[in-house]
Amino acid sequence: MDNSDLYKTIKAPVEGILYKDKNSKFFGYAYPVSTEEDIKAHIENLKKEHHSARHWCYAYQIGTENISYRANDDGEPSNSAGMPIYGQIQSFEVTNTLIIVVRYFGGVKLGVGGLISAYKTTAQLTLDEAKIIEKTINKDFLITFDYKNMNTVMRVIKEKNLNITHQKLELDCQITISVRKTEAESVFNAFDHLFEIKIKEI
């Protein structure tokens, strides 16, 4: 079995995991995300919810084949917060994941080493609570055909047990399917050689 098209992510948000160090409180949050818009929305919401906190440090990784990531110290000493959080995303081998650690300062300075340890531990405890799932990297195809060819298309979809994500069935029909990357070529070929039926990757 070819598993090169599998990746790990978290199934659902984890919120408010508390870690304390020398009176400072660190609250860990993890969210499944797929776009930078999702990420901004979660950060804005937490800034409203914890408006009296001192720092909202975070790290994220999105993408499966083209990875993009960011680590943000939000005013903590350079590399003392964002990178330790990102290190845990790497350690748990998850992607499409955002971790935010909200810090309330307790009056005692932790020093850079203490901060690195606290942010790393909070991120780790938060991911420990998350349900990590495996998903497949998929390719989406648009199949276009005349209504009279509906049975032919549906037969292939049923035979190959394909997942329809969208369909418009009128005189000219369009069906969007989502296919595991490792199976994409054979699915494409199954439709491509059919008469009067067009398939293209989207």
From TrEMBL:
List residues of the Impact N-terminal domain: 22-126
Known Pfam families for this protein?
Impact_N
**Which cellular components does GO assign to this protein?**
cytoplasm
What GO terms in the biological process aspect are recorded for it? regulation of translational initiation
Domain of life, per UniProt, equals: Bacteria
Query: Where, by residue number, does the polypeptide cross the bilayer?
Result: none
Which PANTHER family does this one have?
Answer: IMPACT FAMILY MEMBER YIGZ, IMPACT-RELATED
Its family?
A: Belongs to the IMPACT family.
Protein's name in the database = YigZ family protein
